[in-house]
Amino acid sequence: MAAKDVPHGLWLIGIGPGDLGHMTERAKSIAKGCSKRYLEGYTAVLPKDQEELLEEVVGAWERLMRPSVEDPESLLEEARGESVALLVVGDPMQATTHIDLESRCMEEDVRFEVIPGMSATSLAVSLSGLQSYKFGRQVTLPYPYGEYLAVSPLEMIGNNRVNGLHTLVLLDLDPTGMGFDLPTPMSPRQAVSILERMAEKTREEVSGGSSLPDIRGWDGILLSDVGTSMQRVTSGTLDELSGMEGGFVHTLIIPSKMSDNEKDAFRRRKES
Asked: How far apart are CA 226 and CA 146, in angstroms?
């Protein structure tokens, strides 16, 4: 599609989870036809080898980090007079930041269009072998910031477990919480350690204290670099998964009560 054929406005384009081969033909066509292209660089990560291919697939692009997306005046000003593509790894409307962008465009009468993409979250559920209807609320596990350590993620995991629901846990990408620098994804070892610290803090805050849950004894499924050629899916206890080496971007699934079929799928994903 030629640039003259893509209407002015902001085009939020999902490019799939980590491999440009997942981009739809419409996504490629619209991105190529936009006057300007930006890769949103802080809510998700595109592998280096795919970044190097991106210009060949859609044309020249620049990177935008958190400040330019959350304070989008310059972006919206460009979109008033030309077609602007904001390329997002995965599916673009799964991040609150991008939903806010839609609101800003509506307020300022800037055309806003979404081209969906395959999401890493839906792919992770599919690859886990667990039943999708048995998943509860999704959780993001953040890095601690200074002395502050949120415990709500562990509480939500606990609520899901009590209700017989599996939990998809997205591991944080930014230890600073600022979104200025390129992402530094959380490792499995860091994730399990943070969950243990959350459990300890919860016990300290409960009057009279309580016994600590055996976090390391919980079953889990580690999904690394889903949607890429380096994809790996491994099941085990969280203690076992915490020692897994390699991979870059990781997601955890913490199952609740599993059916016989799910137990079989879990066993098949164990490292031999």
From this structure: 30
| Pair of tokens at residue 123 | 């792919």
Residue type, 257: K
205, two tokens: 């805050």
Helix (H) or strand (E) holding 39: strand 36-40
Q: Is 223 helix (H, G, I), strand (E, B) or coil?
A: strand
- What's the whole-model pTM score? 0.88
Q: How far apart are CA 266 and CA 232, in angstroms?
A: 14
Instruction: Name the more confident of 111 and 65.
Output: 111
- In the CATH scheme, what is the code of domain 121-268? 3.30.950.10
Domain with CATH 3.30.950.10 in the chain: 121-268
Q: How far apart are CA 35 and CA 6, in angstroms?
A: 9
Which superfamily does 3-118 belong to?
A: Tetrapyrrole methylase, N-terminal domain (3.40.1010.10)
**CATH 3.40.1010.10 segments of the chain:** 3-118
Phi, psi of 160 (to 5 degrees): -60, -45
* Edge-to-edge strands, sheet with 62-64: 62-64, 36-40, 83-88, 9-14, 112-115
**pLDDT, tens digit (0-9, with 9 covering 90-100), for 163-206:** 999 999 999 887 665 555 677 889 999 999 999 999 998 887 76
For CA atoms 237, 242, 246, 248, the dihedral sign is positive
Q: Distance (Å, rounded) from C-alpha 272 to C-alpha 268?
A: 9
On whether the CB atoms of residues 26 and 12 are closer than 8 A, the answer is: no
> Whose structure tokens read 């005046």?
73
